[in-house]
Design brief:
- The complex is a heterodimer.
- In chain A, 0% of the residues lie in helices and 51% in strands.
- By secondary structure, chain A is mostly beta strands.
- In chain A, the strands form three sheets. In chain A, strands 2, 5, 6, 10, 11 and 12 form a six-stranded mixed sheet that branches. A four-stranded antiparallel sheet of chain A has the order 3-9-8-7, with no helix packed on it.
- The radius of gyration of chain A is 14 Å and the shape is globular.
- Chain B is mainly beta.
- Chain B is built from no helices and eleven strands.
- In chain B, strands 2, 4, 5, 6, 9, 10 and 11 form a seven-stranded mixed sheet that branches. Chain B has a four-stranded antiparallel sheet with strand order 1-3-8-7, with no helix packed on it.
- The chains are: A mainly beta, B mainly beta.
- Chains A and B meet through strand 5, strand 6 and strand 11 of A and strand 5, strand 9 and strand 10 of B.
Chain lengths: 114, 121
């Protein structure tokens, strides 16, 4: 079975500081990894994904994520956080053997303070 | 592109009533997913379809829930009878499942609708 863990329920960061949202996964097979962001009263928006190739993936709004196979992690990062980055962030994993289902983590709430 | 369209955006109903949620996927997409989001349980996959055929409904809570996809551009999620514990935000998502694209297996991204906020009193 595949699973995703987001160990932090909430991350607080000052505007302009680096932002990291952690994600670890457990799969049997090659993972496809995704990050989504959810703003209040909105649906999930796709940020970025890792399929294969370079371990560092760049996505929307200045976000990037690094795939680390040995640590089974896919942490989301942004060098300089904005107040508007305050939202709920979800990590998700998919394994082709499981069809095209995504398994989501529990979400991490990011609060960027001015 | 209009994106995934869901209706209604908000629904308030009384316990025991039938509730029907609607979804129009992105044109050309051939996979459709229904999710439920609550504070207690997070984001749960209820059911998904490939080419209008239900593939995995293991997440459907019980027989009160049913989903259909009569054609490629429309799906419904029905709750009958509804109960207060069904109160949640229900999301529909769609993706393009194209097994081989330019010689490589494609890895489709799911795009979500704005959700339907359901409150059962």
């Amino acid at each position: 079975a595949q699973s995703v863990a987001q160990p932090e329920d909430q991350v607080n960061v000052a505007e302009g500081n680096p932002l990291t949202v952690k994600c670890t996964y457990s799969v049997s097979g090659n993972p496809y990894l995704f990050w989504y962001v959810q703003y209040p009263n909105r649906g999930l928006q796709f940020l970025l994904k890792y399929i294969t190739g370079d371990n560092l993936v760049k996505g929307s709004y200045g976000f990037e994520a690094e795939f680390n196979k040995s640590q089974t992690s896919f942490h989301l990062k942004k060098p300089s956080a904005l107040v508007s980055d305050s939202a709920l962030y979800f990590c998700a994993v998919r394994v082709t053997a499981a069809g095209n289902k995504l398994t989501f983590g529990g979400g991490t709430r990011v609060l960027v303070k001015p | 592109d209009a994106g995934v369209i869901q209706s209604p955006r908000h629904e308030v109903t009384e316990m025991g009533q039938e509730v029907t949620l609607r979804c129009k996927p992105i044109s050309g997409h051939n996979s459709l997913f229904w999710y439920r989001q609550t504070m207690m349980r997070g984001l749960e996959l209820l059911i998904y379809f490939n080419n209008n055929v239900p593939i995995d409904d293991s997440g459907m809570p019980e027989d009160r829930f049913s989903a259909k996809m009569p054609n490629a551009s429309f799906s419904t999620l029905k709750i009958q009878p509804s109960e207060p514990r069904d109160s949640a935000v229900y999301f529909c998502a769609s993706s393009l499942r194209n097994r081989w694209l330019s010689g490589r297996r494609s890895q489709e991204t799911q795009y979500f609708g704005p959700g339907t906020r359901l409150l059962v009193l």
